[in-house]
Amino acid sequence: MSTHSPGGGGLAIDYMSSEAMDLQYSKTVGVLTRGQKIPALKYLHDDSWELGASNWTPAFAQEFKAANGYDIYKYLPILTGRIIDNRDVSNNFLFDFRRTIADLIYKNHYERFADLAAQQGMGIHSESGGPHPAPLDALKNRGLNAIPMGEFWIRANTHRIEAHRRLYVKQPASAAHIYGKQFAQAEGPTSIGPHWEEDFYYMKPTLDRVYCEGLNRLVIHTFTHSPEEAGKPGNEYFAGTHFNQNVTWWEQAPAFLRWNSRISYMLSRGLFVGDVCYYYGDNVPNQVPLKHVEPGLGEGYDYDVCNTDVILHRMQVKNGRIVLPDGMSYAVLVLPDWKVITPEVLQKLEQLVRDGATVIGPKPLAAAGLRNAGKDITALADKVWARVIQDKPVRRY
């Protein structure tokens, strides 16, 4: 761990193990609640993914075979960069390997966490999609949240300088829209310095931008406990825009909070208007990047990003529009520029098109994953793309 209280260092949790999640929960939340429901405690938080790579757990070989229908051992040399049989076979194994990791993290960490919290009358708002590179299906994980959550950083010349490295709001916003959640929240405006130099004037452009990306609930990062005997400026956490009674603008803070509250309230009313829904595919890692509008989409239009889970279980067509159970609708579904697809997704696309949906994307040529070896999708793909004259590549979101 890079940041912890004295005595809090040590090994990281095994995200693919439900036993590890149970132990972590009992040693943290269990100590706090003593197994009882606490009415005032509504949500539990699991912060951003900062573990780095995660690619094994004691039961992984058994879990892999259960998920994919074949043993992993023959193909393990592929993880060292070798080719087994041929490149297509090796790439398809890697698809299955990465997908299995993401599915185990979803099931044994985040879903287990949500289930344990629910047993005590609580929800979760995990930052369960990064923002650091991680073997995750970020949107699926965030669909478990009572409130999908991300983070954003303030402008700086020292850390996370580029916008795509500091603004992670489009992802929880899309998760909120496609999973029917009212709020999309994020911690911010985070910074690691220079310290004590931010004021409202400096924060506002960043806040304006993240509200436009879909934020409608601000989680202030950070209010550090600093007792009077610590003096001024007092104790502070190394990261976060410092927000407590020791900052020079504390007396003006109510105006800042009223401004954020008013905007959050207004933006949380009604439904987001998204003209296009981009499918980000089934590969892993899968994360939604900084909000940006493709030139082909045109100025004035907006979009959401969706995952396989939403396509399979939440998408229908009404009056030519793609609709979700909670009221969201889109004119178009756009596929990633890939030549492979899972048979399950292709079958659902065929149903959507048959029901009147507009789907844009290249015709897939093969089934994704070694688990689907021998499954010929050509006939169904030809049927879905029968009237298409020319496939145009679409950038992956």
Describe this structure in words.
This protein is 32% helix and 12% strand. The chain is α/β, with parallel strands linked by helices and 397 residues long. Helix 7 (200-213) links the parallel strand 5 and strand 6 (217-220). The protein starts with 17 loop residues before the first helix and ends in a 13-residue tail after the last helix. The model is unreliable at 393-397 (pLDDT under 50).
Offer a quick outline of the entry.
The protein has 397 residues and is an alpha/beta fold. The protein contains 11 helices and 15 strands.
Strand order of the largest sheet: 4-3-5-6
Unreliable residue stretches: 393-397
Quaternary structure classification: single chain
Strand content: 5-15%
Helix content: 25-40%
Shape: globular
Order of helices and strands: HHEHHEHEEHEHEHEEHEEEEEHEEH
Computed CA radius of gyration, to the nearest angstrom:
23 Å
Largest β sheet strand count, sense and barrel closure: 4 strands, mixed
What is the terminal separation in angstroms? 31 Å
Overall average residue pLDDT: 93
Category from helices, strands and their pairing: alpha/beta
Structure characteristics:
four-stranded mixed sheet; 397 residues; disordered C terminus; alpha/beta
Walk me through the topology:
Blueprint: H1 18-27, H2 29-33, E1 43-44, H3 60-68, H4 87-119, E2 123-124, H5 138-142, E3 149-153, E4 167-168, H6 170-178, E5 185-190, H7 200-213, E6 217-220, H8 253-267, E7 276-279, E8 303-306, H9 308-314, E9 316-318, E10 321-323, E11 329-330, E12 332-334, E13 340-341, H10 343-354, E14 359-360, E15 366-367, H11 378-384
Parallel strand pairs: 1-2, 3-5, 5-6, 7-8, 7-12, 12-14, 13-15
Antiparallel strand pairs: 3-4, 9-10, 10-11
Helix pairs in contact: 1-4, 3-4, 10-11
